[in-house]
Amino acid sequence: MTTNTDPLTEQPIRAIINTDIPGPLASRHLFGHFAEHLGRCIYDGIWVGPDSPVANIDGLRADVVEALRQLHIPNLRWPGGCFADEYHWRDGIGERQQRPRMVNSHWGDVVEDNSFGTHEFLALCEAIGAEPYISGNLGSGTVREMSEWYEYITREDDSPMSTLRRANGREQPWRLKFFGIGNENWGCGGHMNAAHYANQARNYATYVRAHGDNQPYRIACGPSDADYAWTETLMKTFGDLTCPKCDPTPLHALSLHYYTFTGDWEDKGDATDFTVDQWYRAFDKAWQIDRLLTRHGHVMDVYDPDKKVGLVVDEWGAWWNPTPGSRPGFLVQQNSLRDALIAVLHFEAFLAHADRVVMANIAQTVNVLQAVLETDPATGALIKTPTYHAFSMNIPHMDAAVFPVQLLDAPVMPGEFRDLSLVHAYASGRDGCLTISLTNLSADQDAELTIDLRGGEFAEDVAGLILTAPAINSINSAEALETVMPQPFDDASFNGGLLGVRLPAHSHVQLQIAGVFDRWRG
User: Which residues fall within 8 angstroms of residue 500, CB to CB, at 6 or more apart?
Assistant: First the structure.
């Protein structure tokens, strides 16, 4: 495979940010996370048990809880994934020593002891300040089972399920808004066709009822990748039920799953041993999320022009070949600078489509796929991955007004990557602060930007952070925890009213500027 040559030149790239043109509000839920009973994500990652020598909070690993709290995680999805449609919630309540065991057939064919269940998950959400998002079992469960789970969690009076909850130690109900009606039912969740799933989902969703003032937001299993026919079938089938007169309204959103890799499903590519070509190929694949959001959105617009139905990208991220020597079904992979830049490309797409995309969840939180945290089994160290720092640098975009960015003269890769811009930018405003996020995907060349800020008055003091590393495949490890982490960035300044930025190769930069906007929507 030939190596591409970056077309960046010394000619500055021009950008215009219009803070006087109202954009959509970017929900904080676009920066959500996903924790499945898969490999070492839950066990050893999040849950160590109250008797563990590892410092814990009622069994939750204390350093993981604190690291996730620092990310201001808005929501956390659980228990799957494929695991959701073989999970029976009653097995995960009551005395832990007496809970029945099960086989986790999807992920490693291991025996699951159910010591981490509903109470433990909701305690985790409370500890990290995240809203819970639970995926119900449509594939192998029953309508009654799903209905009673929601009652168990959210009902306050002396109903059968709330009485059972109290017997298990929880007096007050939890708040639970986000509830998934199955997961990947086109695949591991039952291998259903779209019409069959849609009719099943109508039935199941009807019985996920509001209890008291706890109103469920029901998320149907949407498509994988570019399966636009699945989206259209669901929108047709649910179309007559997405109206205020329908009680209850079974559908509030569709999910979408999309993963980034450079090969095929059998050989997805190596996490760290990659060529420059594969560096660019990964970004080209990641940026297809923008096209998918556009096209699925167009299908939804036909049946829902007012955008009442949300799109939830509740599984996304880089998926590489398992780390050599690891258990294949545990999906262990290393996390490099490349993964962090893949993440920020997704953030850019989510903000651009924030009028339809209401939530997103990276796969996954700890020790699995594009994890934000890794717990080293040999040393016990907690490792914040490059992707963790990408999330940290994008906290200011949560619940912020999106401002459109025009990039002029931005170079694109030649040949097969000709549609891939090497420089990316997105911006938002909140609390009197403009946040500009800039990314240079070039493997080895810096870029010069001149940014024209329009529609407001801005201070000329610029606060900056940069995420980069010595090499494009740099990682953090137990031996070197801070190889890839944000550093102060001071190569941005105003000159004649224009903001000039020198953007280093393979980097992500956050700039923050105080301002008064003509059309402040904050």
Answer: 12, 448, 449, 450, 451, 492, 493, 494
Strands (E), 364-462: 373-375, 382-384, 400-403, 405-408, 423-430, 433-440, 447-454, 456-458
pLDDT in tens, 271-288: 999 999 999 999 999 999
Question: Structural domains in the chain?
Answer: 13-21+403-517 (2.60.40.1180), 25-399 (3.20.20.80)
pLDDT digits (tens, 9 = 90+) for 298-334: 999 999 999 999 999 999 999 999 999 999 899 999 9
The backbone torsions φ and ψ at residue 63, rounded to the nearest 5 degrees and listed phi first, read -70, -30
Q: How many helices (H) and strands (E) does the chain have?
A: 10, 27
Calculate Rg over the CA atoms of the chain.
23
Residue 367's region, left for phi above 0, alpha for psi from -120 to 50, else beta, is left
DSSP conformation class of 97: G
Positive or negative CA dihedral for 347, 348, 350, 354? positive
The residues annotated as belonging to the active site are 184, 315
Q: In 10 A of CB 456, how many CB atoms?
A: 19
